[in-house]
Amino acid sequence: MICTTYRGKIKAFSLVEVVIALGIFVFAGFALIGLLSVGVQSNRDSKEQLQAANIIEFLCSTRRVVPTTSISAQPNFPLPDLSISANNFTLPIYLTWDGLETPGNTQAGAIFGLLYNITAPAPGTYTPKINPGFSTVYICIYWPAEAPLTSASGHVELTSTFALP
């Protein structure tokens, strides 16, 4: 409270002015707290989306290097050989933070769920190193892993074409 004396009179804020100022301060404080929770949730969603995009990039770059062979150097790699059409829409693959399949494909320790569809060349039209072809791959990573895609809090999708050797 600010008090000054001017020719014997005391000047100060009235109780009504103080209550109005406190009301404005409290209202602004609640608004800022509400914005803080929105910012924290946005940061969390952004982090999960970035991690999912990094996992998709890891899966695609690894499969571009070796599209038609099993990846024995990388255990629990979730994408199969790209020369054979396949999908896993009925049973998702559960992934850890590093993009590898959880042991036994269980939800324990899983952060993301993976769905994919591989459309390979028709049988007989692809011969390695003689008649190369292309495979189209659709990848969807969603989170949390235990939720079905329809009720997941977020997902990242990619459709890409891979040249087969």
Distance between the termini: 81 Å
Could you give the count of β-strands? 7
- Summed over residues and divided by their number, the pLDDT gives a mean of 86
Structural class: alpha+beta
Q: Tell me the radius of gyration.
A: 29 Å
Give the domain tally: 1
Into which percentage range does the β-strand content fall?
Answer: 15-25%
Task: Please give the largest β-sheet.
Answer: 5 strands, antiparallel
| Topology as a string of helices (H) and strands (E) | EEHEEEEE
Instruction: List low-pLDDT spans.
Output: none
State the shape: rod-shaped
Walk me through what this model shows:
The termini are far apart. Strands 3, 4, 5, 6 and 7 form a five-stranded antiparallel beta sheet that branches. Strands 1-2 form a two-stranded antiparallel sheet. The protein has one helix and seven strands; from the N terminus they run ββαβββββ. It has one domain (29-163). By secondary structure, it is an alpha+beta fold. Strand 1 (4-6) and strand 2 (9-11) form a beta hairpin. The chain has one helix at 15-65; strands at residues 4-6, 9-11, 86-87, 93-95, 112-119, 134-143, 154-163.
